[in-house]
Amino acid sequence: MRLHQRGTALLLVLWVTILLAALLAGVAAASRSHGQAALYGAERVRAELAAEAGLAHAVAGLRAPDLQHQWVPDGRPYTFTFDGARVTVAVVDVSGMVDLNAAPTTLLGGVFRSAGVDALQAGQLADAIASRRRGGSGQPGEPFRAVDQLASLPGMDLALFGRVERAFTVYSGRNYPDASYAGAQVLAALRNIGAAQARTLVAARRKHPAQQGAGNGQAFGAVANGPLVAGYGGVVERVFSSAEMPDGNRVGLDVTLRLALTGTQARPYKVLDWRSDSVQAP
Question: Which residues, listed in sequence order, are joined to residue 253 by a DSSP beta bridge?
């Protein structure tokens, strides 16, 4: 009987030992998981701060007093490191985008065609934009307040919206965009050329320093809502800032802002639109 009791006790001790080992293994695994999550969160925050540093760097570059160090807002990339992150920033002057409230339907349709839409659907989408602007049946026209309103147009889906939304703006007031700052989609629509040729022209342009002055003599058409502001086509810029950490954490910002080119240093810009996790410039 005593031997049986000892065997039972030994078996019980073994089971308790196995159970404790399993519990300890679980605790260790949970601790590692929590530690990795905390590390990922910390790296994510560092990437976010680095992307915001890219935005601040862009504002300083756009407001630089000498042309030699002034950033060119035509979508060309600027890169630097910040707190271990590789930061890439591109700025596009909104005068190089197609204004939803001012552009003619032919140009609107051209942007959709440059994004791969067939001529019939492109015309329907352009007509839907124009119809919203002018109203009808006794109803007043309704201007676009944000590019995101494109997503609600009949015939628009999320995939197409994702391809075209960086080509449009509601802040330029121009009938026709300025080719000096236009991305490939806009340039293809503006000059009625193929997408591949437009990409080649844009890539070549971004390799050369820009000339001084609004438009560089390449603007088409007129301005719908007042004169241009001198100095790279205006004061409203769309800034794309992305930061990537060594562990692969990546954060992007897409910010539209109105610069204060002169005057107070306390408020050098005003944010008009702020989006997170967008990392691709036009």
Answer: 241, 276
**Do 156 and 176 belong to one domain?**
no
Average pLDDT, the chain: 80
pLDDT given for residue 221 in this prediction: 37
Phi (first) and psi of residue 102, to 5 degrees:
-130, -25
Sequence-ordered list of residues with C-beta below 8 angstroms from that of 65, at least 6 positions apart, any chain = none
User: Which residues span the domain enclosing 229?
Assistant: 1-97+172-282
Asked if residue 267 and residue 253 are part of one domain, the reply reads: yes
Torsion angle, CA of 166/170/172/174, rounded to 10 degrees? 100
**Do residues 190 and 50 share a domain?**
yes
pLDDT tens by residue, 31-88 = 565 545 555 568 888 999 999 999 999 988 888 877 777 888 889 999 999 988 999 9
Residue with tokens 């002169």: 262
Strand partners, 117: none
Walk across the sheet containing 85-93 and list its strands.
74-82, 85-93, 236-244, 250-259, 269-276
- pTM summary value: 0.75
Instruction: For residues 138 and 258, state if they share a domain.
Output: no
Same domain, 145 and 62: no
Residues 129 and 26 reside in one and the same domain: no
